[in-house]
Amino acid sequence: VYALVGGGFGDTEGKVLGTSLLVTAAAVVALAAAVALEGGRLGRLPYLGVAAAVAGFGMLVVGVWAELDVDPYLRTAFTLVVVALAFWYMGLIGLARLPGRRQWTVAAAHVLAGISAAMIVGALWIEPPSDAYWRGGGVVFILLAAVTVTVPILHRMADIPAASAAAPPPVAHCPFCGGSVSGTAGFPVTCPACGREWVAAIR
After folding, report:
1. At what angle do helices 11-39 and 45-66 cross, to 10 degrees?
2. What is the distance of C-alpha 176 from the center of its chain?
3. Strand partners, 120
4. What's the pLDDT at 93?
């Protein structure tokens, strides 16, 4: 705040502002990546996203203050940021609650996000990527955009109950270990205790 409203805006103030933006971005990305831990569908992989966010944005902060212009250093930092953003996306898209027959769209989004991140990282380290590389990346990005639009629509459709249908009953206990869960019959439920995923049938 002082850097913005103070008397002057020099090199130090610019570094302070840049640091604040990077720290804020790191916190947002790390928290969103950690959301995937709640569902348990990605196992322990979201921890990698949190670590990548802290390390990647931390390296950028160091680069801002030390005025580093070392190519391998910056490539490594941006690689970590891309990995963190991939888990940020997976954490957010994983919040969608879809019926079992439509759950494949979330899995497809996870796979496409991983491929997209891998191709971006590859572009950072391959000099220069071929035209075929960019064409393949364009196809992957278009598919990712299509799935990203589709998942929220399916999620919204799943939230609209049929006029003549009663609300599905809640699921409170895991049938395998007896642990407490929070879910709805007819939808995938993952037990935070044993990690098993199942769908409770409605009769």
Report:
1. 180
2. 29
3. none
4. 82
Segment 127-145, tens digit of pLDDT? 777 888 888 989 999 999 9
Taking the whole predicted model, whether its pTM rises above 0.85 is answered as: no
Strand partners, 188: 199
Distance CA 115, CA 97 (A): 23
- Strand pairing category for 197-199 and 188-190: antiparallel
Question: Locate tokens 């996870």: which residue?
Answer: 110
The amino acid at residue 25 is A
Which residue is it, tokens 């996306």? Answer: 89
Backbone φ and ψ for 94, nearest 5 degrees, come out as -75, -10
What's the CA gap between 183 and 136, in Å, rounded? Answer: 39
DSSP 86-111: HHHHHHHHTT----GGGTHHHHHHHH
Decide if pLDDT at 2 tops 70: no
Q: CA 144 to CA 110: how far, in whole Å?
A: 9
